[in-house]
């Protein structure tokens, strides 16, 4: 029996083949038990918990760790055999390639999970997590480039020249694509500094709308009239952006005028009338109301009050109620709102007093 096991075929004894086969069989059996029993029990256990971390760990074990264990097991079994140098080199390349791919996937998946979990705990987390895709594209590309360089170096390739070439090529690309790279860096500024977010209503110069999409190069707004406005990220970071979504209150200034024929006593009553109307509206804070100036055809009043919300529709509801209240009270008091008029005085030639016409 021993003599049979010591017989050689293709440079290896029959015993070596048996040992390699036993390693594969026993290893695959252990991994099968691990998948069928241990992972299933872990899956049932994590389904009873509210945490997403344990779910991620179980999925990571199934998708990344188990394939790596299969690759390691196959490599150990083949390493027990005395193979030709060419075959040995191919096996090393395939093993390092498979392990590197699984490690890169595990790293990128973990980073995405951590970043998504961090953003989801913030305000408007669902909207913020959608922006992670653009960041992850860049991070994934960088990790894959580093993994490829690691593989090339591990295979004996001189990566110094390659890296130098990438540096020179990167400078050339950067010079040729300054605008694109500027928008890319502006995207990072918007993502981390968060001057505005998806859903915010902003005004940029003479354009306004709700933020609908924030991309790597452009940001898109939906205007009040319905069309889509597209801005480059650099334009937004270089502009003064008015973000009305974060407005906690509005300071309202409005004016109106009454006729010159209004008696002085009525003119003195008007600030109090305005104050009472504003104070009767729940939530509004009266600031001031004054007889401002003498206009060309009216006596001007200026009113200031505070609306404790940034909602434009609610502000307009309050302003409409104030206007209707003024109309009602002025009608009762006999106070007339002014409108553009002119008074013509005619001088008589015979010396009589001028007539008003």
Helix content: 55-70%
The figure for the number of domains is 3
Per DSSP, the total helix count is 11
Rg for CA atoms: 39 Å
- Principal-axis shape equals elongated
- Classification by helices and strands: alpha+beta
Strand content: 15-25%
**Unreliably modeled segments:** none
Compute the separation of the termini in Å. Answer: 137 Å
Q: Strand count, sense and closure of the main sheet?
A: 5 strands, antiparallel
N-to-C SSE string, H for helix and E for strand = HEEHHHHHHHEEEEHEEHEEHEE
Oligomer: single chain
Q: List how many beta strands DSSP finds.
A: 12
Strand order of the largest sheet: 6-5-4-3-7
Mean pLDDT: 77
Structural description of this entry:
With 357 residues, this protein is of the alpha+beta class. Helices cover 58% and strands 17% of the residues. The chain has helices spanning 2-5, 14-47, 53-79, 85-120, 125-130, 132-154, 159-176, 178-193, 233-237, 264-279, 312-333; strands at 8-9, 12-13, 201-204, 207-214, 218-222, 228-232, 241-243, 250-258, 285-294, 299-307, 345-346, 355-356. Helix 2 runs antiparallel to helix 3, helix 4 (85-120) runs antiparallel to helix 6 and helix 10 packs antiparallel against helix 11 (312-333). It has 3 domains: 2-172; 181-243, SH3 type barrels; 250-333, Alpha-Beta Plaits, CATH 3.30.70.100. The strands form 4 sheets. It has a 5-stranded antiparallel β-sheet with strand order 6-5-4-3-7. Strands 8-10-9 form a 3-stranded antiparallel β-sheet, covered by helices on one side. The chain is built from 11 helices and 12 strands.
């Amino acid at each position: 029996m021993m003599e049979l096991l010591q017989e050689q075929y293709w440079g290896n004894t029959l015993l070596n083949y048996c040992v390699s086969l036993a390693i594969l069989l026993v290893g695959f059996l252990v991994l099968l038990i691990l998948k069928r029993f241990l992972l299933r029990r872990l899956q049932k256990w994590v389904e009873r918990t509210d945490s997403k971390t344990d779910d991620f760990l179980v999925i990571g074990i199934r998708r990344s760790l188990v394939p790596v264990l299969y690759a390691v097991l196959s490599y150990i079994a083949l390493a027990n055999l005395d193979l030709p140098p060419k075959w040995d080199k191919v096996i090393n390349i395939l093993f390092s390639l498979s392990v590197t791919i699984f490690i890169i996937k595990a790293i990128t998946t973990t980073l995405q999970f951590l970043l998504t979990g961090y953003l989801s705990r913030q305000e408007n987390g669902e909207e913020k997590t959608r922006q992670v895709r653009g960041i992850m594209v860049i991070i994934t590309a960088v990790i894959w480039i580093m993994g490829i360089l690691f593989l090339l170096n591990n295979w004996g390739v001189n990566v110094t020249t390659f890296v130098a070439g990438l540096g020179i090529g990167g400078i050339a690309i950067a010079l040729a694509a300054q605008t694109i790279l500027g928008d890319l860096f502006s995207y990072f500024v918007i993502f981390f500094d968060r001057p505005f977010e998806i859903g915010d209503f902003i005004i940029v110069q003479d354009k306004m709308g709700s933020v609908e999409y924030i991309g790597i190069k452009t940001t898109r707004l939906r205007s009040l009239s319905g069309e889509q406005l597209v801005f480059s990220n650099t334009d937004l970071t270089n502009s003064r952006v008015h973000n009305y979504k974060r407005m906690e209150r509005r300071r309202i200034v409005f004016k109106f005028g009454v006729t010159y024929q209004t008696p002085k006593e009525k003119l003195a009553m008007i600030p109090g009338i305005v104050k009472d109307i504003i104070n009767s509206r729940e939530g509004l804070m009266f600031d001031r109301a004054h007889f401002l100036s003498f206009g060309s055809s009216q006596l001007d009043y200026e009113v200031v009050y505070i609306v404790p919300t940034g909602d434009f529709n609610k502000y307009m509801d309050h302003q409409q109620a104030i206007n209707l209240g003024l109309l009602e009270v002025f009608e009762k008091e006999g106070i007339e709102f002014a409108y553009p008029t002119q008074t013509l005085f005619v001088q008589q030639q015979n010396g009589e007093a001028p007539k008003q016409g």
